[in-house]
Specification:
The protein has helices spanning 7-14, 32-42, 65-84, 110-133, 135-146, 175-180, 207-249, 266-283, 289-305, 308-313, 319-336, 343-347, and strands at 15-23, 28-30, 52-54, 86-87, 103-106, 159-162, 169-173, 184-191. It is of the alpha+beta class and 354 residues long. The protein has two domains: 16-191, no CATH class; 199-353, no CATH class. The strands form three sheets. It has a four-stranded antiparallel beta sheet, with helices on both faces. α3 (65-84) packs antiparallel against α4 and α7 (207-249) packs antiparallel against α8 (266-283). The longest helix is centred in the middle third of the chain and has 43 residues, at 207-249. The protein starts with 6 loop residues before the first helix and ends in a 7-residue tail after the last helix.
């Protein structure tokens, strides 16, 4: 990234923030009656037990909406959402975190993502329609499976209100409509927040507070940029160091056990991570020169490893092959020195260059 470029302004031009919001009816209900029955049968305190009813009956019937619709969501994320976006305020990327936050979508992919979402929404709505259409059958099966614990009040009920004259109840939302509201599949988008001049802040706060707000916004964006780039960088470093470690451990001398075997599948794996790094550098990081240099240096070397004849030659039991293996390992490791842990922080205004 050019030092004169403001990374936050650049990012606002190159990407938008997107968030997938999904939800479904769980089809479960905690039962105090079941807890008391368990305690009566086995002794102890009922509050020490946990008892949940499957309101769709025996799971083997295949009616469970929670697992089924989660499966649809996971498939969409795997095939489209995560493939077309990068981590940002997505808490699932934090250590120990799990959940859905905003992710970064390059502007050249937002139409593709929206199109994929539209198709996914059609599938989602179709499956919701099918579930509601079968709800009477689902409840009949559950009544058999749950026995005396079945209670129709455990299912979404129609919403009623007094009419305008206060004379009688009228249905304002049917039970099916209430059930439908429990299923959500939405794509939220918003602009990436830019760092502004203090004079542009209209809040009635002190100048010091305005400055603090600007600094916190800028630091958050820079840190997220660094984290996005670091994920791609770490993938490249890991794939290459794993390969070079195996190459160095490899011993093809006759009569001796080979150690740390390396295989033809390793090179395409490295190529894939290099391609991802170059893509994120172009789409999000503003063509950082260090990443460009490392990418160009490694691409030709890795491509050579994809040549089957060359790859087979460096696995031979000869002094020349051993020397070539050492040359390969050193040649791949050398460019990685530029990808030290703080180069991204420095590139985006942190580190020792502040």
């Amino acid at each position: 990234m050019n030092k004169e470029q403001n990374p936050t302004t650049l990012l606002a031009q190159k990407a938008v923030m997107v968030r997938l919001v999904t939800g479904q009816w769980s089809g479960k209900k905690v039962s105090k009656i079941a807890k008391k029955a368990i305690a009566k049968e086995f002794g102890g305190n009922a509050d020490a037990y946990f008892a949940s009813l499957n309101l769709t009956g025996n799971p083997d019937r295949g009616w469970n909406p929670d697992s089924y619709f989660r499966g649809i969501t996971s498939k969409f994320k795997r095939e489209h959402f995560h493939r077309l976006t990068y981590p940002w305020d997505d808490v699932s990327t934090a250590q120990g975190g799990k959940g859905d936050g905003y992710r970064l979508c390059p502007t050249n992919k937002i139409d593709q993502l929206q199109s994929a979402f539209n198709e996914g929404k059609i599938e989602w709505d179709r499956e919701v329609d099918g579930f509601i259409k079968n709800l009477a059958k689902i409840k009949a099966d559950a009544k058999i499976d749950l026995g005396d614990l079945y209670n129709d009040d455990h299912y979404p009920q129609a919403v009623q209100r007094w009419d305008s004259n206060g004379e009688k109840y009228v249905v304002v939302k049917t039970a099916d409509e209430v059930m439908r509201d429990k299923f959500t599949f939405e794509l939220h988008t918003m602009f990436v927040q830019e760092v502004v001049d203090p004079d542009d802040i209209r809040l009635s706060v002190s100048d010091d507070m305005k400055e603090r707000l600007i600094n916190e916004t800028e630091n958050r964006i820079k840190n997220n940029l660094v984290n996005v780039g670091q994920i791609a960088v770490d993938e490249v470093v890991q794939n290459i160091t794993e390969f070079t470690d195996k190459v160095r451990k490899f011993n093809s001398a006759k009569g001796k056990r080979r150690e740390g075997g390396f295989y033809k599948t390793n090179a395409p794996k490295i190529q894939k991570s290099l391609s991802a790094l170059a893509q994120i550098n172009e789409e999000i990081l503003g063509n950082d020169p260090t990443i460009e240099k490392v990418h160009q240096d490694l691409v030709a070397k890795v491509a050579k490893l994809c040549d089957e004849k060359y790859f087979d030659s460096i696995k031979e039991d000869t002094d020349e092959a051993k020397a070539e293996r050492a040359k390969v390992a050193d040649g791949l490791d050398e460019p990685l020195q530029d990808l030290n842990k703080d180069f991204l922080s420095k590139a985006f205004g942190g580190g020792n260059d502040d």
